[in-house]
């Protein structure tokens, strides 16, 4: 989950002052002077002809670093007999607006070969095109996928491959609003207190005298000093899918500076408005192994039974 000016895990219920009207989406406000919008841009209104880009090129580093069992991609995890990646694709495959689905996988040739071996058969049945994504950054993955858009596409939905349980109501809200606004993102309010910390970890001393004598480094997660509390007023956590009118998205990706953590940030950099609609706390992104328990509970599926030891190899 991408958070502007901080991070907060999803909450079960939005606060009472949160605007829930679907007909009144909120404009994203910036903390710096906005550029004048480009008045030459005319959004395409009416029914969408949607291309869906599933960003699946990540290396699952955070997931792997927390895993305690066999190391594997989080996109391969089982959700009721289907992998996470397939579940994410299926969110859009049945929509009348969808005319194209692009899955942007690993950039490395060997990794892509293994990716196709695991997923190509299932994804081909869903009408997906698999293309290499970026090597280092998410924006490289989206940029690579944009080169494969069909001419008839009017809008692009960009979705995290690791969000397999996005409620249909969220997708419907985003797409309906995208018929009137060229850049739309789902968000949820930030509920927890946010604090900015000193990036330098504190020097820790080992409580074990013998370890100290032997010069062993103290174990455990790093500790940081709090610098300040961040005002969370008007802060929201951003989810996907994010939907953009195709010509606006191409202009955003034609900029020289593409450094960003989500695609809406590039639209903001153009000085164009980004419209928010209500997301959903259940629209979880699989980041750590413990997230699987929550996602399976939301989807009503069980974890696969472990194989007997003699069948694991």
What is the straight-line distance between the termini?
Answer: 35 Å
Q: Which percent band covers the strand fraction?
A: 15-25%
Give the % helix: 25-40%
Q: Strand tally, please?
A: 14
Radius of gyration from CA coordinates: 21 Å
Tell me the name of the CATH homologous superfamily: Spore Coat Polysaccharide Biosynthesis Protein SpsA, Chain A
How would you spell out the order of helices and strands? EEEHEEHEHEHEHEEHEEEHHEH
Structural class: alpha/beta
Q: Give the low-pLDDT segments.
A: 5-13, 15-27, 29-33, 39-44, 309-313
Overall geometry comes to: globular
Instruction: Look at the structure and give the CATH class.
Output: Alpha Beta
CATH topology: Spore Coat Polysaccharide Biosynthesis Protein SpsA, Chain A
Domain unit count: 1
CATH architecture: Alpha-Beta Complex
Describe this structure in words.
The chain is built from 9 helices and 14 strands. It has 313 residues and is α/β, with parallel strands linked by helices. It has one domain (2-7, 46-201, 235-311): Spore Coat Polysaccharide Biosynthesis Protein SpsA, Chain A. Strands 1, 2, 3, 6, 7, 8, 9, 12, 13 and 14 form a 10-stranded mixed beta sheet that branches. A two-stranded antiparallel sheet has the order 4-5. Strands 10-11 form a two-stranded antiparallel sheet. Helix 3 (109-125) links the parallel strand 6 and strand 7.
């Amino acid at each position: 989950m991408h958070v502007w000016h901080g991070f907060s895990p999803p909450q079960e219920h939005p606060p009472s002052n949160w605007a829930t009207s679907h007909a009144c989406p909120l404009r994203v406000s910036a903390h710096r002077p906005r550029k004048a919008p480009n008045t030459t841009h005319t959004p395409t209104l009416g029914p969408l002809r949607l291309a869906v880009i599933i960003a699946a090129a990540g290396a699952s580093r955070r997931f792997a670093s927390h895993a305690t069992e066999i190391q594997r991609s989080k996109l391969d995890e089982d959700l009721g007999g289907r992998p996470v990646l397939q579940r994410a694709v299926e969110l859009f495959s049945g929509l009348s607006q969808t005319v194209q689905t692009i899955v942007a996988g690993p950039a490395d040739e060997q990794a892509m070969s293994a990716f196709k071996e695991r997923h190509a058969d299932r994804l081909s049945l869903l009408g997906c095109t698999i293309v290499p994504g970026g090597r280092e950054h998410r924006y490289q993955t989206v940029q690579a996928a944009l080169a494969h858009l069909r001419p008839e596409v009017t809008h692009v939905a960009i979705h995290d491959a690791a969000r397999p349980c996005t409620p249909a109501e969220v997708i419907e809200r985003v797409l309906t609003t995208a018929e009137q606004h060229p850049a739309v993102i789902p968000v949820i309010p930030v509920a927890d207190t946010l604090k900015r910390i000193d990036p330098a970890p504190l020097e820790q001393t080992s409580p074990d005298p013998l370890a100290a004598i032997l010069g062993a480094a103290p174990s455990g997660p790093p500790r940081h000093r709090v610098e300040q509390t961040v005002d969370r007023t008007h802060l929201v956590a951003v989810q996907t899918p994010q939907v953009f009118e195709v010509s606006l998205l191409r202009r955003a990706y034609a900029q020289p500076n593409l450094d960003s953590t989500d695609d809406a940030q590039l639209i903001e950099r153009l000085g164009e408005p980004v419209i928010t609609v209500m997301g959903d706390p259940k629209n979880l992104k699989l980041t750590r192994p413990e997230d699987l328990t929550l996602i399976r509970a939301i989807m009503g599926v069980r974890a696969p039974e472990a194989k007997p030891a003699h069948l694991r190899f």
